[in-house]
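Q: I have 266 residues here and want to know how they pack in 3D. Can you give me a structure?
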Amino acid sequence: MTNSISRFFMRRKNWAIPYALFMLVFVVVPLLLIVYFAFTNEEGAFTLANFQKFVQNPEALNTFLYSLGIAIITTVACLLLGYPAAYILSQKEFKAGKAMVVLFILPMWVNILIRTLATVALFDFLKLPLGEGALIFGMIYNFLPFMIYPIYNTLQKMDQSLIEAAQDLGANPFKVFTKVIFPLSMPGVTSGIIMVFMPTVSTFAIAELLTMNNIKLFGTTVQENIYNGMWNYGAALSLIMLLLIAITSIFGNDEQNVQNESGGVI
């Protein structure tokens, strides 16, 4: 018996069993349940009525498109703010870079609801109205670190000899950045975009707190339907959101593969 247990633990592949069970119970089974409820009615019969209801419901479609718009604005703003910050922090001349990176990451250790409530308190203190502006500000504040860190990590690991070679060949700083640094940093940019876009398009708590429930995002629509017991329609909306996130991830992976195949330098 003891020898059997020892042989079991000596095989490396057996150590993956707990992780496989975890993925099965907490990832695969929930996804299968979402698919099942999305394509069935309350009696359990197969139907496409849940998706037809979404397409024929102007409010749901408008909420979906509005959520995409907010997610795109947030992602672009985080990229415009995050890339310069990551670039500056990655420079060897900036000696306090690592300490500043820790300061950027520290807010990620705090629960997102607490950070959002702090944003609400800040707007109340400054006597600024809660609404769309507060929503976009809160989104950027919450997800900016997710853009900075992957870009910073990529820039840190960049082969400096390529930059030196470009400089030796007479490239000015602008060309060095556009032809070498930026193309090589695209894997980090792609990761940052995915890490910001995916949670932004699916969140609902931030919108509820920063707009006093006056602005509804697609995540809120999903949450309301499930909370009200409309599991089938809510599952269909969740599946639509999951497909959108999956398409974004696949697109990001394809862009990164093309970047790697091209050698990263244009």
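Q: Anything worth noting?
A: Confidence is low (pLDDT under 50) at residues 262-266. The first helix runs from residue 2 to 10.
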